[in-house]
Specification:
Layout lengths: L4 H29 L5 H4 L10 H20 L13 H15 L4 H4 L6 E6 L2 E6 H26 L6 H5 L3
Antiparallel strand pairs: 1-2
């Protein structure tokens, strides 16, 4: 049995974002229960040169919508990075899930060898579709999700491995 590009992307990305939304719910409950200013977590960085919690969530969302759009050959939506609360981050995650789940298998399957070019500043990186999905996008989503998880854990939010993994 082979796995399709659609099966390796949309359901897995939606699952990662659903799990991230669950972590945000736990964080919201934590700050309310312990009467903590939410900004203490939302703006927290594990190290000064790392991005804060909000950016970790935003980048995870951007990566999900970007990879699916690129594979499908469409221009993805641009979300402003203006979220300042757990509720606003939840909205961003929900918008991202709705966007990526709007793609069909017919739009994604067969893109294993599609040329994908990612431009950051003046630098271009060239990928093939499967390489981009498996070697760049999925690891990037999991990286930013795990950093968000680590920020929560470091700040005393009662999260565990099962919360991060969810129901795969």
């Amino acid at each position: 049995m082979t796995i399709s590009m659609f099966s390796a992307s949309v359901p897995r990305l939606a699952n990662a974002l659903t799990n991230l939304a669950h972590l945000l719910s736990l964080a919201q409950t934590h700050v309310e229960t312990h009467k903590i200013n939410p900004d203490a977590i939302l703006n927290y960085r594990l190290f000064p040169d790392m991005l804060d919690f909000k950016r970790q969530v935003q980048i995870a969302c951007d990566t999900c919508k970007g990879v699916v759009a690129r594979l499908a050959g469409v221009e993805g939506p641009v979300f402003e990075d203006k979220e300042q609360s757990f509720a606003e981050l939840q909205e961003r995650i929900a918008k991202t899930i709705a966007y990526i789940e709007g793609f069909s298998a017919a739009q994604i399957d067969g893109t294993e060898d599609k040329d994908i070019v990612v431009t950051r500043g003046e630098k271009q990186t060239h990928y093939k579709g499967m390489q981009f999905l498996l070697g760049h996008a999925l690891p990037n989503v999991y990286f930013h999700s795990s950093v968000a998880y680590s920020i929560l854990r470091h700040n005393g939010v009662a999260v565990g491995k099962r919360d991060y993994l969810g129901k795969p």
